Amino acid sequence: MSLDHEYDDKKGADVYQQQVGGADQIQHEQYSEEIVPQDGLKRSLKSRHLAMISIGGVIGTGLFLGTGSALAHGGPLGLFMGYALMGSICYSVMISLGEMISFLPIPGGHIKLAERFVDPALAFTMGWNYWYNWVIILPAELSAAAVLINLWNKTINNALWISICLIVVVVINLFGAGVYGECEFWFASIKVLTITGLIILGIIITAGGGPDHKSIGFQYWRDPGPFVQYEGISGSLGRFLGFWAVLTQAAFSYIGTEIVAIAAGEAKNPRRNLPRAIKKVYIRILVFYLGGTFIIGLLVPSNDKGLALNSGTALASPFVIAIRRAGIPALPSIINACLLTSAWSAASSDLFTSSRAIYGLAITRQAPKIFARTTKNGLPYVAIIFCALFGALAYMSLQSTAGQVFGYFANLTAAAGLMTWWGICVTYVRFEKGLRDQGIDKSTLPYTSFLNKKAFAAKYAIVMISIILFFSAWSVFLKGNWDTATFVTNYLPLWLFPLLWVGYKLIKKTRFVRSTEMDFVSGLDVVEAESYDEPPPTTFAGKVWAAIM
């Protein structure tokens, strides 16, 4: 039985227009002006681009490298449970976002939706928080790329590798969304094949199919055990704290799943392609994250000394550790090359997302209007160049170990990313209330999920994200564990979010949008004009490809 619902575009649109046809004309003109700026973004992302972006677009060093420290903190069961809990939150966020963005696939994505359904002040806050999140994670991925290259060569200064990676990422983005989408399709394909191959290889090694013919099974779940006693704290409390320590790293790995919303404004045939992309998110969660973390817990003991990310090379990857322990000599370098493309791909997505975020702010006059400038081909070149400058923060890693810098960036962006998820879910709760109060049937939307009946999934995510954020830096309060950098990088986004929201609200005197006044009409005519029925494939190969994509 399908969990989700797709509708017939034309029929749903007709019913919908009958239900909400009396929207305010002034508001319609206002939103139309903002949604379709002259010489704005162009829809050039194809269905297969969106499919691979949603499945593997931002799978990066968080999964391939960061799971090592998470395993060391939580143990195999703590690692799996942490990623499972965060996966349930991620899925709740995505089905909430999917209902809104499939209905209104507009430039600015969830940032614009917050303005329309909650409060312009929330849109301002989410927009700058989102931009800050991705413009900071860009240097994190560049630093991680330097870590990966160190496996082969430690004699050349990391500045060279960071510079090369940054130049390639900027060039890809300056060629436009179509080229970015094509590069991401192939980059993400490599990542998907890599993680799938690693999971299969992990099963083989666990079963004793490696060169050493040693069957591992659940050996490491018995010794050193399924959980780690965090910081030597005994009993159930120590085991719980070990599990909780996994959550920040798990959040960093999942953050970015929502970039499909930012790409919506440049997606071809959005009413058809976006629901398809959203529906593939569960594949990413179940197969890559939960499957990957389960296998990692079988392959590597949680007390393996190589799990410390500060070792400075990709040998800290639990997959590479397992391969070396099994006695397979050539594979670590091959896997390292795949991980390098993963970091490269994630950095490219970071620049794309941050530039579109500040572009979305500019077209709503919440950022300097210079960032809304585009070429005749729809490239926001000013936004891209400005965001690319922040890639230079990666050179900070030259003054300390790249692993430490990556850890600081991970904490910083995980908190900011979770704040974005929180804002998305708050927006959905208001969106769903507006539908009910205006008598709009949800079955007429392009995409719905039964888990969000009365916004249940969104409310679950709001509660869980709030708890995780509040306790995100709990470890620094343990005796002898105080670390100012960890405290600041975890809680800085939590301080900035309400300050920006309240500050903008007081200065601009904005008000919350009443559910009965929400505009569900403006921009629909443009979206409908750009949506169409795609002819079904006629060949066997075409049918197989369509099923995959």
Automatic annotation (TrEMBL):
It is a multi-pass membrane protein. GO terms for molecular function: amino acid transmembrane transporter activity. InterPro entries: AA-permease/SLC12A_dom (IPR004841), Amino_acid_permease_CS (IPR004840), APC_YAT (IPR050524). The keyword Transmembrane applies. Residues 49-512 form the Amino acid permease/ SLC12A domain. The keyword Transmembrane helix applies. GO terms for cellular component: membrane. The chain crosses the membrane at residues 50-71, 83-106, 131-152, 159-180, 186-207, 281-300, 378-396, 408-429, 460-478, 484-504. It comes from the Eukaryota. Keywords: Amino-acid transport, Membrane, Transmembrane, Transmembrane helix, Transport. It is found in: Membrane. Its main location: membrane. This is AAT family amino acid transporter. It comes from Kwoniella bestiolae CBS 10118.
